[in-house]
Amino acid sequence: MEYRKIKGEDEDRGSGVDDVESLRGKSLSLQGTMLDNNLVTIGENKIDRTKWKRKSVVTLALTVLTSSQAILIVWSKRAGKYEYSVTTANFLVETLKCAISLAVLGRIWRTEGVTEDNRLTTTLDEVIVYPIPAALYLVKNLLQYYIFAYVDAPGYQILKNLNIISTGVLYRIILKKRLSEIQWAAFILLCAGCTTAQLNTNSDRVLQTPFQGWVMATVMALLSGFAGVYTEAIIKKRPSRNINVQNFWLYIFGMAFNAVAILIQDFDAVMNKGFFHGYSLITVLMILNHALSGIAVSMVMKYADNIVKVYSTSVAMLLTAVVSVFLFGFHLSLAFFLGTVVVSVAIYLHSAGKMQR
Amino acid sequence: MEYRKIKGEDEDRGSGVDDVESLRGKSLSLQGTMLDNNLVTIGENKIDRTKWKRKSVVTLALTVLTSSQAILIVWSKRAGKYEYSVTTANFLVETLKCAISLAVLGRIWRTEGVTEDNRLTTTLDEVIVYPIPAALYLVKNLLQYYIFAYVDAPGYQILKNLNIISTGVLYRIILKKRLSEIQWAAFILLCAGCTTAQLNTNSDRVLQTPFQGWVMATVMALLSGFAGVYTEAIIKKRPSRNINVQNFWLYIFGMAFNAVAILIQDFDAVMNKGFFHGYSLITVLMILNHALSGIAVSMVMKYADNIVKVYSTSVAMLLTAVVSVFLFGFHLSLAFFLGTVVVSVAIYLHSAGKMQR
C-alpha cells in the first residue's frame, strides 16, 4: 500500500510543475550537483505530500458531507413530506456559500493583505464564464420535473448513474486529461457497481423506460457532467487565484439563478405563505450541509478533479446505506454487497491504473 | 488489440520453454548471430501462434459446449422432470469419453506408431494419482444432496460462484502460478459479476443461509476447485504425454467411481426398472454433450489452465441466458446486464493484467 501511495504521488505531480520548476531554478544557482538533486527531491516530496494531504482532506470532507446529506434527506422524508419551497432553500444554500467565501476572504485580506490573487474585482473576461455552471444546473433542475412523466423515482435513481459515464467522457473531451485503459475500465465498473448496489425488486421497470425517457436522462446526465467539468475548467484555468474568490463568483451567480427559479416555480407560495414557510430544524441542517458540501465540491475541483468527485460521491452513497442500517434499521441486499465489492475493486483499479498511464 | 494479443502471446511462452530452448540450441550450431536471432524469433512466433490458436479453439469449444449443456438442462426441465437415473447417465458419459479417447488413440497409433508418449501402459507411479479427481467429484456430488437441507436451489446457484474464488486461490497455492494484482482484481470481479447476473427477487434469501450451509458450500467449492486444479497438475506434469492417454486414465477411474455411485444411490431403480429407464432423445443428447464438454475441459487444462476454464464457463453462463431469450422467451433483468458488463470488464482486465505481471 505504501508503495502504491508513493507511486500515486509521483503521478499527481503534473499540476505542481510550476512550483517544482521554480525550486529547480533556485537550486541551479547553488554549487554541488549531488547536493542540489537531493534538495530538489526533498522539496518535491514535501510539496507532493502537502498536495496529497490537501487532496485527501477535501475528498474525505466531500464523502462525509454527501453521505450525511443523503441521511438528512432520508430522515426528513421519514419525518413527513417536504413542506418548504425547495427553491428558497436552494437560494439560501447559495447565499450561505457566498457569505462563507466572503468571510474567509476577509480573514485572508487581514492576514496576507489584498493581492492580485485574492482581490475580488476581476476583468469581465474572467467573470463572464462563471454564470454558465449555475445556468446549466437550473436547466437540469427544470428538466427533472418532466422526466418523471416517463420514469418513476427509483428508476430515476438508477438512471442518474449515467452521470458517472457522462462525467468521464466530458472530462476526457473538454479537459483533455487522459485516463489509462485500466482507469476507464474502473470507471465503467464504478457505474455498474453503483447501479448494482441500488438494485431492488422494482429496478427492472427501468428497462421499460420509453425512448423519450432515455433521451431526457442522457441529456440530464450530459448537462450535469458538463456543469461539473466546466466548473473544474474555470477553477483550474487560473491555479494561483484564491479558491474563495472563484467560489464567490460561482455562488453569486448561483444566487441569481436560484432567485429566477423562485420566481418561476414558487412565486405564489412565497407570496402567500412567506419565504420561510415550512422550515424546520431539519431544513436548516440540510441547508447548512448543502452549503458545506457545495464548498467541498469546489475544493475537490480545485485540488483534485471531477473523477475524484465521482468516486467520492459513489462511496458516500454506499456509506449512506451502511449508516442507514444502524440509524433506520434498513436491510442490506445481496445486490448491495455485490455492488460494494465492484465499487471497491474499481477504486483499487483507479489507483493501480495510474502506474501504467 | 493486436498489440495486446502479441504481448499476451509473449507471456504465454512459459509452458513452451522446452521447445523454444531446443530451437535456440539448434540455431547456436549455425553461423551468423543476427541471422540466428531472426530465425529464433520467427520460430518462437510460429510456435506461439500455434499455441495461441489451439488454446483459443479449445476454450471456444468449452464455452459453446457448456452453454448448450445448460440449454439442454432447461429444455429437459421444461419437458418434464428427470425420469432417468442421473448416476447411470454419468456412468455413460464417462464410458463415452473413455471410448472417444481410445478411438482417437487408435488413429494416432496407426498414423504415428506407438511411442513413449502415446502408449497406454504406464508406471503405477504415474497412474496412482488419476483416481483422485474422480473421487473428489464423487464426494462433492454426494454432499450436494445434503446442502439442500440448508439452501434452496436458487440460493445454491448463487453459492456455487464461490467455486470461482476457490479455484483462483488453489491455483495459486497448489500450481504455484502467479496472477498479477490486476488479474486478482479481475477474478474477484468475475465472481461478483456472475453472481450479479444471476440475481433474482429471491436471491436475498441466500443471506439467511445458516452457518452449516456456508460451511458446506465452502467445502464443496474447495473440493470442486481442488479437483480442477489437481487435474491440471496431473495433466501438466508430463507435457509430452499425449492428452488422450491422460484422458483414458482419468475417465477409466471416472467410470469406476460412477459405478460405485450407481450402487449407492440408484441400485433399486436400475434393478427394478432397468439401466436405461426414462431415457429419451434429450437424455442421449445431454450425455453426448457432457462427454464432449468433459473432453473440452481436459483440453483446456492441457493447453490453457483452470483460470481460462473458469472464464470460459462464466461466459457460457451469460451466453445461455441470452440464447434462452430467443429459445424460451426468457426476460433479461437489469441485474443480468450489469453482471455482464462486470464480467466483460473482468475478461478485459485479465488480459490487460498480463502485461504488468
| Helix content percent band of chain A | over 70%
**What does the radius of gyration of chain A come to?**
22 Å
Mean pLDDT of chain A, nearest integer? Answer: 84
For the largest beta-sheet of chain A, the strand count, sense and barrel status come to:
none
Tally of individual helices of chain A: 15
- Look at the helices and sheets of chain A and give the structural class: mainly alpha
Name the poorly predicted regions of chain A. Answer: 1-33
Number of domains of chain A: 1
The number of strands of chain A is 0
Largest interface: A-B, 29 and 29 residues
Form type of chain A: globular
The share of residues in extended strands of chain A comes to under 5%
Taking the alpha carbons of the first and last residues of chain A, their distance comes to: 18 Å
Oligomer: homodimer
Question: What does this molecule look like?
Answer:
Chains A, B: It is a multi-pass membrane protein. Chains A, B: The chain crosses the membrane at residues 56-76, 88-109, 182-199, 211-235, 247-264, 276-298, 310-328, 334-351. Chains A, B: This is CMP-sialic acid transporter 4-like. The structure is a homodimer of 357-residue chains. Chain A is mainly alpha-helical and 357 residues long. Chain A has one domain. Chain A is 78% helix and 0% strand. Chain A contains 15 helices and no strands. In chain A, α2 packs antiparallel against α3 (33-79), α3 (33-79) packs antiparallel against α13 (281-303) and α4 runs antiparallel to α11 (243-265). The longest helix of chain A has 47 residues, at 33-79. At the A-B interface, α9 and α15 of A face α9 and α15 of B.
